[in-house]
Amino acid sequence: MKRSTLVALGALVMLPGCGAAGNWGWYVIDPTTPNGWSNITFLLDGFGATILLSVIAAVLSMVIGLLVALPGMSSNRWLRLPSRVYIEFIRAIPLLPMLFWVFYGLPVVLKSIGISVSIDAFWGAIITLAISDSAFTAEIYRSGIQSIAKGQTEAAKTIGLTYTQTMRYVILPQAIRRILPPLANQFIYIVKMSAFASVIGMQELTRRANELVVTEYRPLEIYTLLILEYLVLVLIISFCVRWLERRMDADESR
Amino acid sequence: MSDTPRPRAANAIEVSGLNKWYDTYHALCDIDLTVAHGERIVVCGPSGSGKSTLIRCINSLETHDGGRIVVDGTLMQDASSVDAIRSEVGMVFQQFNLFPHLSILQNLTLGPMKARGLSRKDAEARAMKYLEKVRIPEQAHKRPAALSGGQQQRVAIARSLCMEPKIMLFDEPTSALDPEMISEVLDVIVDLADSGMTMIVVTHEMGFARRAADRMVFMDRGRIIETGTPEDFFERPQTARCRTFLRQILKH
Fold first, then answer.
1. Per-residue pLDDT tens digits of chain B, which is 252 residues long
2. Which residues of A touch B167 (CB under 8 A)?
3. I need a labelling partner for B178 at 20 to 30 A (CA). Which of A1, A27, A240, B45 fits?
């Protein structure tokens, strides 16, 4: 992390504490008091759910996205069409209405076709995030794969590789380094959007902050801490991605 | 592939009445071309004349809109015949098209291992054999980017040879090379010609054509204008278009 980022972060935390006496009540999250400490641990406990939710949704989104993207690049328009429709349709639905629809509506639809399942907040959020995001990951795959020169596919054909082998051994290994940065962006997006899971009762970071605000009446301090929680999470992800990119570059120039 | 040896087809390649359009542009018009086993054909002509399109049709990298293509007795019609034809035909591209993320050795073993089911050991032995043939066995563990253009093109030739094709197609194999690297690639192709490989070479290297070709094919605007032995072709061109082309290309 750059030093300037650290300074800015420090200022954000320190400033309110020094000035504007009376408007701030940092005591709610003061780790030196028993109440403050228990509040902090209550808030931090949301990390597990947020991370688990985001990681599972991101993995599913990457799988669905690839399965949507590949037929989308076919020369056969009947294979292309469903992929196109899926992307345009899913991309047009805002996350929150989709979350409500999946959580409250999907079990009803499934029941009417004889499948009786209840969808809890955790899986409701994962399904919504994964599907909503998959339209974007599909487009990322498409641009990454199409950026690999056509000559690579042709060379693979002339040495007898099948479509699947060409993708697996020739195209995807090259596309992945171009896909990685925008895919990491999408992961960060998922982490942030997972906050919506709070409205259907998922006990993640935002839900916990909301609940604490209701009992402590200190929204400013608690939401400030909440924002910092997301900031730290996203910075860690960025750092990991950059490390991964550097590793791949080092691997390439071998 | 079946175990019983197939009776050898009369010709390596038979193209008849071949037509291809890009929308309204008539890229290939009524092409007839028969290539005997072991024959070496050099195709030349001005840019946009359809030379590359023609050889790309022969291994179905381009689809055609009319006419017949028969390669070693197999009529090109459906996906399985295309697979069968591609397994007999190797191709070398102007831009090499090596796989940049794989080592030279991996570039050569990928096809034999994945498409032919060879073990790694056998595939590597075969790869080294052909790397020696193109005279760069010492580069086996480098990535393509670490090699010169001439070396990369020789690797591309070796990669094709690893599939042990009966026919080799060369699509302007030296056009992307610096001048000082052209001869090292042409020498390898001449060696291959001397070994009896059937080949079609699209090139502007007329010195190579005189040295290696059995027959010249001159194309212009999607048609074959003239064919003949190199001697006839260079000394006694029959058509005005061909004479103009030769004058321009041999001017220096």
1. 445 556 677 899 999 999 999 999 999 999 999 999 999 999 999 988 999 999 999 999 999 999 999 999 999 999 999 999 999 999 999 999 999 999 999 999 999 999 999 999 999 999 999 999 999 999 999 999 999 999 999 999 999 999 999 999 999 999 999 999 999 999 999 999 999 999 999 999 999 999 999 999 999 999 999 999 999 999 999 999 999 999 988 876
2. none
3. B45
The residue assigned the tokens 């070396």 is B151
Domains of chain A: 42-218 (1.10.3720.10)
Minimal C-alpha gap between A151 and chain B (Å): 6
A165 chain-B contacts, CB cut-off 8 A:
114-115
Query: Does the beta-carbon distance from A160 to B115 stay under 8 Å?
Result: yes
Spell B44-55 as b/e; 16+ CB within 10 A means b: bbbeebbbbbbb
List B228's β-bridge partners, or say none: B216
Chain B residues 180-199 with CB within 8 Å of chain A: none
Least CB–CB distance from B93: residue in A151, A162, A170: A151
**How far is B136 from B151, CA to CA, in rounded Å?**
7
Task: For A162, name the nearest residue in chain B, comparing CA atoms only.
Answer: B115
Per-residue tokens: B130: 């052909």
Q: Tell me the residue length of chain A.
A: 254
Partner A contacted by B126 (CB < 8 A) = no
Cβ burial of B19 (10 Å; 0-12, 13-18, 19+) is middle
Residue B19 has what DSSP assignment? E
- Sheet (strand B167-171) strand order: B89-92, B167-171, B198-202, B40-44, B215-220, B223-228
| Amino acid, res. B173 | P
Report the half-sphere exposure of B80 (CA within 13 A, side-chain side): 1
How far apart are the C-alpha atoms of A152 and B96, rounded to whole Å? Answer: 9
ipTM for the predicted complex comes to 0.91
Query: Which residues, at least 6 apart from A238, have a Cβ–Cβ distance to it below 8 Å?
Result: A184, A188
- Closest Cα to residue B154, out of B132, B134, B174, B179? B134
Beta carbons of B159 and A157 less than 8 angstroms apart: no
What's the predicted TM-score (pTM) here? 0.80
DSSP code, position B159? H
Burial of A176 (C-beta count, 10 Å sphere; 0-12/13-18/19+): middle
